[in-house]
Design a protein that fits this description.
15% of the residues lie in helices and 37% in strands. By secondary structure, it is mainly beta. The chain folds into 3 domains: 95 residues, Tumour Suppressor Smad4; 92 residues, Tumour Suppressor Smad4 (Sandwich), CATH 2.60.200; 116 residues, Winged helix-like DNA-binding domain superfamily/Winged helix DNA-binding domain (Arc Repressor Mutant, subunit A, Orthogonal Bundle), CATH 1.10.10.10.
């Protein structure tokens, strides 16, 4: 996974952990500033494979190079300069690490194993796809390599062409979890996932909630969910509606307990309290985007989202037995 660091203008550096890092005067921030003109929570840095999202939280002005941050997150890359209150604060750098063997290989129609070193690995008929199948639409399949499995995300067109047995394993949002040795036949082609020699040390991250601490931090434009278990820590930043969805699952209203199934209609009312016409279609679109965010953060999607077969009920299994702290900014 790509790693990033901040090189401070006044000297020193800080390695950003995967997920979200907060910056401001508040004592709970990851990077604490003493400048009285900076807000208690001024900036959120959300690491991704292709860069670092900068989300402005406070009132003080923030720029990335010459671009002013406002309501929208800005994706910064290596060499970009973060300016707070008109003063250069830090330069973002990618941490160069020795190349290692990716743990997962993909075979298409019996081809030699293709390294899933890209995140995500795209298959389709487009010139930008990592593996080209001419009779598929561009970007028809996206493969996301996790620690213990590969998440296969299919377009609507490919989902419709799945074998019935495979369609039953596919979630409503188009995701399929492929473990070592799993093969998938779709649209006339066979996809097979195998583990390379380096995959033997992989472990599932935060798939079991016992003894875990889950902290929800709500901000004006979204929120951060942080999961801690022993020395392990991971986090993900979600925009407002996506955060509201997971918050409803992790901290459900009475009489539901964390980890219990909740009816879709009740979830829609919690996510869109002022929009009673929102329905299952809107919920499924939002849920799909939440799943994508969790995959990008290298978190176990199935631990956060489980749909009951044959109904619209949804739950977050990771909440069972976990200590959950719901913090409002």
């Amino acid at each position: 996974m790509t790693r990033w660091r901040l090189e401070f203008e006044l000297g020193g550096q800080y390695s950003l952990r995967p997920g979200a890092t907060s910056l401001g005067r508040h004592p709970t921030c990851d990077i604490i500033l003493t400048d009285s003109t900076v807000s208690r929570r001024q900036l959120l840095l959300n690491t991704r494979v292709d860069g670092v999202e900068l989300i402005k939280l406070g009132r003080q002005s923030v720029r990335c190079n010459e671009r002013e941050l406002d309501e929208e997150a800005v994706l910064a890359g290596s060499g970009d300069v973060i300016v707070i209150g008109g003063r250069p604060f830090a330069t973002l750098r990618v941490i160069e690490e020795p190349a290692s063997e990716p743990p997962w290989l993909l075979s298409v129609d019996g081809s030699p194993g293709l390294s899933l070193g890209h995140a995500p690995f795209a298959i389709g008929g487009g010139a930008e796809d990592h593996f080209v199948i001419p009779d598929w639409p561009a970007g028809a399949a996206q493969l996301h390599a996790l620690e213990d499995a590969v998440i296969i995300e299919l377009s609507d067109a490919l989902r419709a062409q799945l074998e019935p047995s495979e369609r039953a394993r596919l979630g409503d949002e188009g995701f399929l979890r492929a473990e070592p040795g799993h093969s998938l036949r779709v649209a006339g082609h066979d996809l097979a996932v195998t583990a390379s020699a380096s995959a033997g040390v992989a472990t599932t991250q935060f798939s079991v909630a016992e003894d875990a601490l889950i902290r929800l931090e709500s901000y004006r434009r979204g929120g951060v969910i942080t999961i801690e278990r022993g020395a392990q820590i991971a986090s993900v930043y979600l925009s407002a509606l996506r955060f509201a969805l997971l918050r409803a699952l992790l901290c459900p209203p009475s009489p539901h307990a964390p980890g219990e199934f909740i009816e879709l209609e009740q979830l829609c009312a919690l996510i869109w309290p002022d929009k009673p016409l929102k329905n299952e279609y809107d919920f499924n679109v939002l849920l799909h985007r939440v799943r994508q965010d969790l995959v990008r953060a290298k978190l176990d999607v199935d631990a956060f989202i489980e749909r009951a077969h044959g109904s619209g009920r949804v739950r977050a299994p990771i909440a069972i037995g976990a200590q959950i702290l719901d913090q409002v900014d």
